[in-house]
């Protein structure tokens, strides 16, 4: 039995029986932090086990946003590289975040987050604080360098940034912002649209707005960042590192990178 367990531990996670693809995508997206998974748990490399589902089950999108578990976080599929189109109501893959998961990845206090950061100069000369976890500083540098190569003035809006690390909660909530973890960046504010800046229509529905060039979005997606312009509650200046949603086994639509 011990030998069998040892053999199972040595197998690549893809071959483990009963491990849902969402758990596989999480494990393979955060090497060094996550080491394995069972049918119901993530296994961190420090031995911590984190349940994929926690009860009682949340049935509304608002409940999932406020108190989502890992299953809620992985519930919606992100489709990269496609044109920007109005998302369906509450379709916003990546916007649900399990706070305990991200706090463990990046730090649970501002000091813990800062301990893993470095400086990165953006295209407008602004110096940003970016986490070094999972090579995110290098990935963001690769985004920056690729934006420079886009033709004409396509990427010009993204040359301007409002920053990365901000230790704060999301406006109007007690939930911690992705910016608290130094793995998110806001670019192109003058051409940006945010759902809270506009009143919903008479039926309470948000009207999608976007002026961010899709070429810019595709560069970020190529390097592991999801875009807030693919959310019903749109935030078109916002990009955050969420490789689990871009993993080939979890991504939606056409997975061929453009
Ligand atoms: Zn943002």
Strand content: 5-15%
User: Tell me, what's the shape?
Assistant: globular
Ligand inventory: zinc ion
Give the strand order of the largest sheet, numbering strands 1, 2, ... along the chain. Answer: 6-7-9-8
Structural class: alpha+beta
- Rg, nearest Å: 19 Å
The top level CATH class name of the domain at 84-246: Alpha Beta
Strand segment count = 9
Unreliable stretches, pLDDT < 50, 5 or more residues? Answer: none
Q: Could you name the CATH topology of the domain at 84-246?
A: Muramoyl-pentapeptide Carboxypeptidase, domain 2
Q: Summarize the amount of helix as a percent range.
A: 25-40%
Helical element count?
A: 9
The oligomeric state is single chain
What letter string, H or E per element, gives the SSE order?
HHEEEHHHHEEHEEHEEH
Span between termini: 47 Å
Summarize the structure in words.
By secondary structure, the protein is of the alpha+beta class. The protein has a domain at 84-246: 2-Layer Sandwich (Muramoyl-pentapeptide Carboxypeptidase, domain 2), CATH 3.30.1380. 26% of the residues lie in helices and 14% in strands. The protein has helices at residues 2-10, 21-29, 61-67, 70-73, 99-106, 110-114, 136-148, 214-222, 243-246; strands at residues 34-37, 41-44, 49-51, 117-121, 127-131, 161-163, 184-187, 225-227, 238-241. The strands form three sheets. It has a four-stranded antiparallel sheet. It has a three-stranded antiparallel sheet with strand order 1-2-3, with helices on one face. The protein has a two-stranded antiparallel ribbon with strand order 4-5. Strand 1 (34-37) and strand 2 (41-44) form a beta hairpin. Helix 7 runs antiparallel to helix 8 (214-222). The radius of gyration is 19 Å and the shape is globular. 36% of the residues are buried. The model has no long low-confidence stretch (mean pLDDT 90). Bound molecules: zinc ion (ZN). Zinc ion (ZN) binds at residues 179, 184, 186, 238.
């Amino acid at each position: 039995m011990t030998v069998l367990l040892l053999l199972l531990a040595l197998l690549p996670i893809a071959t483990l029986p009963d491990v849902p693809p969402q758990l596989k995508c999480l494990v393979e997206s955060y090497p060094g932090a996550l080491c394995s998974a069972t049918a119901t748990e993530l296994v961190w490399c420090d031995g911590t086990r984190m349940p994929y589902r926690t009860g009682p089950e949340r049935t509304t999108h608002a409940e999932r946003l406020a108190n989502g578990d890992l299953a809620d976080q992985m519930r919606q599929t992100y489709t990269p590289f496609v044109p920007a189109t109005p998302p369906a109501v509450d379709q916003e893959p990546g916007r649900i975040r399990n706070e305990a998961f991200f706090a463990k990845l990046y730090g649970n206090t501002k000091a813990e987050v800062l301990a893993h950061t470095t400086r990165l100069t953006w295209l407008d000369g602004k110096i940003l604080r970016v986490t070094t976890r999972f090579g995110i500083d290098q990935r963001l540098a690769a985004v920056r360098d690729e934006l420079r190569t886009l033709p004409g003035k396509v990427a010009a809006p993204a040359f301007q940034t409002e920053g990365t690390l901000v230790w704060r909660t999301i406006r109007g909530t007690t939930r911690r912002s992705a910016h608290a973890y130094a793995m998110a960046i806001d670019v192109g504010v003058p051409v940006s649209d945010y759902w809270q800046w506009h009143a919903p229509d008479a039926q309470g529905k948000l009207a999608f707005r976007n002026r961010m060039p899709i070429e810019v979005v595709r560069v970020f997606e190529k390097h592991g960042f999801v875009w807030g312009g693919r959310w019903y509650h749109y935030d078109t200046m916002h990009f955050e590192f969420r490789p689990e949603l871009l993993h080939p086994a979890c991504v939606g639509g056409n997975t061929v990178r453009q």
